[in-house]
Specification:
535 residues, alpha/beta, Leucine-rich repeat, LRR (right-handed beta-alpha superhelix), 3 domains, 18-stranded mixed beta sheet, disordered N terminus
Length: 535
């Protein structure tokens, strides 16, 4: 059984081509429905259930939550011809193995009930249809190998008052046809203010993405848009279609695009940059383009778009991990970021992008100019930053007195002891930090660098969350013991500490440092701290 407007058409009929789905929504059911007598198939407790299952066990779930009263949880199996209908958690009505309609609330199913039950189920059906039409928020999450897009389309089309719609179909075989059907469903919701589409790994390709974006471009009421089209091989053509749709949504205030691993090159990045340039009201911009083919020219186009954003941008996230932007591309991006004086949250993911110490220098100058930052995340893993680049990044922290959250990913950069010391001094001066995530793995910082970092961390009085990764750094007994003392003196709610892979513990001294660190972690756990540690 599938309620109208949740996972079926408006006539409350489930569809045999829908393998499985799930919808969660909130609404108010009429008071009379909560007091239906158990003799008519409903129980007075706070939860009633209608369940139908076929031989394959593939269920379509939908729930309607009733705050403070009761809830109706219904399940139906698409294409089911026989089975059991559980009318409550304590009562069961067994139907004969015949041509039983799979929708137990449909008119065709009513002859299988006595007159009283048929009347009440029919009334429940009509009331449920009317109530679901008033929904303003709904999110579909489907976790199967295949999904029928037209069934989802009919489900969404029946909900005319939606303002918030989320559809999560990641890694399902949706294809171009399914994307076209989903686009038709999205086009029927003209009042949407927020739309989230998670379609990563759905094999929609550039054609399917074009169908979706053509419908999205007509939604002029949209304020927040999130599209995850990662792992779909859309290429520059798909990026162009997406950019054209986004550029027409002049009212957008929040935009998040995930196009990771899609063979997007400089041309695609240029199209996206031009689209973002037209959005004058953006306050939240997130572009994730990991594992693509973007070089210096593409980074320059994105930088131009960032400069053109004239709205009150408070959050900016640029993800270009594993792209060949080089030092010049990093410089262009850094200069663009420096123009966002009102930004409060910045995330720059540039790992394995050949940034070098010169790129780190430009990024440091840009970040240091943003004195209003409260949250900063910089990913420069495997970029040959070196001790010189670490020193330049450390100098940028001096002016960030409002910083409450800091994430620095610097693994595999040959920072060594000198660079670790510079970073430690800078971190120790950020007394307002409440959350710190530091990845220094594979930098050969040794005991000296580990001691400097541990002492700097112990100087942060407000720190409640700590994630420190010093694997592969030749840290010995001295550095381990210093971390044990630092952690033992802190009041943390979350700790992640990784010191394994250092291979410098010898004899009884190494065992003593292990024991001291174990005792410190146990003390934190006893006080309620969540700890994930390895050494």
């Amino acid at each position: 059984m599938t309620p109208a407007g949740v996972d079926g058409a408006s006539d409350c009929q489930p569809h045999g081509d829908l393998d499985a789905g799930r919808a969660r929504c909130s609404t108010i059911l009429p008071p009379w429905l909560t007091g239906v007598d158990t003799a008519y198939g409903f129980a007075p407790p706070s939860r009633h259930a209608l369940c139908m299952e076929d031989g394959k066990g593939e269920l379509v779930d939908a729930s309607v939550e009733v705050p403070g009263e009761s809830s109706l949880l219904s399940r139906g199996a698409a294409g089911s011809r026989s089975g059991c209908v559980a009318v409550s958690s304590r009562h069961e009505l067994r139907l004969p193995h015949a041509m039983v309609p799979c929708d137990v609330l449909s008119p065709q199913a009513l002859p299988y009930y006595d007159a009283s039950s048929a009347f009440r189920l029919g009334a429940a059906n009509r009331q449920l249809r009317s109530t679901l039409q008033q929904l303003t928020q709904i999110c579909f999450t489907v976790r199967r190998n295949r999904v029928a897009g037209d069934s989802l389309a009919r489900a969404v089309e029946s909900l005319r008052n939606l303002e918030v719609l989320g559809v999560d179909l990641r890694f399902l075989t949706l294809g171009e046809v399914g994307a076209r059907q989903l686009a038709q469903a999205v086009s029927s919701t003209h009042r949407l203010a927020r739309l989230e589409l998670a379609l990563g790994g759905c094999s929609i390709g550039p054609v399917g993405l074009k169908s979706l974006t053509q419908e999205i471009s007509s939604m002029q009421c949209l304020l927040r848009l999130k599209v995850d089209a990662s792992f779909n091989d859309v290429g520059d053509t798909g990026a162009q279609h997406l950019a054209r749709a986004i550029g027409s949504l002049s009212s957008l205030e929040s935009l998040e695009l995930d196009l990771n691993r899609n063979r997007v090159g400089d041309a695609g990045a240029g199209w996206l940059g031009q689209a973002v340039s037209n959005l004058r009201r953006l306050a939240d911009l997130q572009l994730y383009l990991f594992d693509n083919r973007i070089g210096e020219n593409g980074a320059r186009e994105l930088a131009t778009a960032i400069r053109a954003v004239s709205g009150p941008t408070r959050r900016l996230a640029i993800g270009l991990n594993r792209n060949a932007i080089g030092e010049i591309g990093a410089q262009d991006l850094a200069q663009a970021v420096a123009t966002l004086r009102g930004v409060e949250d910045i995330q720059l993911d540039l790992s394995v992008s050949s940034v070098g110490w010169a790129g780190a220098h430009d990024l440091a100058l840009a970040v240091g100019a943003l004195t209003g930052l409260t949250s900063l995340s910089v990913d420069l893993n495997v970029n040959h930053v070196g001790a010189a680049g670490a020193r330049l990044l450390a100098q940028a922290f001096v002016s960030l007195t409002k910083l409450a959250s800091l994430k620095m990913f610097l693994s595999g950069n040959r920072i060594r002891e000198a660079g670790a010391r510079e970073l430690a001094v800078a971190i120790g001066n950020l007394r307002g930090l409440t959350s710190l995530e530091l990845d220094m793995s594979g930098n050969n910082v040794g005991d000296t660098g580990a001691v400097d970092l541990a002492r700097a961390i112990s100087m942060l009085p407000n720190l409640s969350r700590l994630h420190a990764d010093l694997r592969g750094n030749v840290v010995g007994e001295i550095g381990t013991r210093e971390f044990a003392r630092a952690v033992g003196a802190m009041q943390l709610v979350r700790l992640e500490l990784h010191l394994d892979g250092n291979n410098k513990y010898f004899g009884e001294a190494g065992g003593l440092s292990h024991h001291e660190l174990t005792h410190a972690v146990q003390r934190l756990q006893n006080s309620g701290c969540i700890c994930e540690c390895s050494w």
